[in-house]
Amino acid sequence: MDKTANGMTRRGLLASAGMAAIGTMVAGMSLRAAAWAQGSDDLVAAAQKEGKVVLYTGSAEPLVIALGEAFRKEYGIQLEYQRLNSSKIASRYTAEAEAGQTIADVLVAGDQILIDAFQQKGWIADLDPAQVPGLAEWPAEFRTAHSTVISINPHTMATNTSLVQELPKKWEDMLRPEFAGQIVTVDLRSVGLVAFGAYDLLLRERGEDFLRELGKQKLQLGSSGPASVQQVAAGAAKIFYPCSVSQAQSMIQQGAPIAAVLPEGESYTGVVSPAAVSAKAPNPNAARLFVGFMMSEAGQKILNTETVSPVNTPGTAPLQPGFVMPDLASAEANQKKIIELLGLGA
Q1: How many C-beta atoms lie closer than 10 Å to residue 22's C-beta?
Q2: Residue-by-residue DSSP string for 47-84
Q3: Are 132 and 297 in contact (CB under 8 A)?
Q4: 169: how many CB neighbours lie within 10 A of its CB?
Q5: Cα(217)–Cα(174) distance, rounded to whole angstroms?
């Protein structure tokens, strides 16, 4: 059912992991946001005339509500949204686009390949930096001609601090004898492509032998990310890899003895959340204004209370050195190999 924001994934069809975070209300308007409004009067006026923007996302509902309320206070424009899991969003968006009945103005997904595939079909519009507030200043590595990354959810080693006295400091530490039979991962035979990004990076940087040795650690298999980190919190395992920062934070906030360990001086990746505008958006001006708002200081603080801002917005967790954008094309090519190397082929 359609909802308003102030009320109240890529297999099967490109299931992806959406970002998960809990937003906080941000009052007022930053000087940066004010400058945008003053320099884009025509866009603001046109967006206000449209009166609403429709978002398809897998983001946590409190985050979406907070973001929509802040956007409404800023511009008087209503956010309506559909919050579904990623595969259902992909299916719904595809069905509507193929029927020529575009409903979503803006799409936020955890899979750049999904966005790229939609763009190749002509369903996603190019983003002109002159027409999207803040886009021209956004780092080039975090945008394409048709999308912009608004949130990063790093993959970490979620470690039970009650069971592990010496926390792992590097990826190779997962091979320590004490972790044999004590590492849980999601069952790669039944999850979407996004989960392979972290393993693909290990494969490309450390080689096949590293994954073979990791597989010899007799990995436990969790049904999902949340279920896996809960296993570690309950003491049924010592490490969950790859665990997103937001999944670890969900347990930490409940008082669980969990640390989200990210090695220093080593490459790491995570889930990135690109935002895109539909080529046939019913409310194109409100869509572009909303994407700009998500990149503003106010929007970034709401989006990244647990996750990471690509531009290190004050008040958000910093993006640690070593981040590598997930190469999902490589992950897709290496998907079967990763499963086999980890001993999960049976």
Answers
A1: 16
A2: HHHH-EEEEEE-S-HHHHHHHHHHHHHHHS-EEEEEE-
A3: no
A4: 13
A5: 8
Across the range 290-301, mean pLDDT stands at 97
- The pLDDT tens digits of the residues spanning 154-190 come to 999 999 999 999 999 999 999 999 999 999 999 999 8
Of 108, 57, 115, 107, which Cα lies nearest the Cα of 84? 57
Could you give all domains of the chain from N- to C-terminal order, each with its CATH number?
3-151+271-303 (3.40.190.10), 153-269+326-341 (3.40.190.10)
Number of H helices, E strands in the chain: 13, 10
**What does the angle CA 122 – CA 72 – CA 151 come to, to the nearest 5 degrees?**
55
Distance CA 9, CA 56 (A): 12
Query: Tokens 């999960």 appear where?
Result: 344
Bin 265: left if φ > 0, else alpha if -120 < ψ < 50, else beta: left
- Amino acid identity at 102: T
pTM, two decimal places: 0.85
pLDDT tens across 252-282, in order? Answer: 999 999 999 999 999 999 999 999 999 999 9
Q: Which of 306, 291, 245, 232 is nearest to 271 (CA)?
A: 245
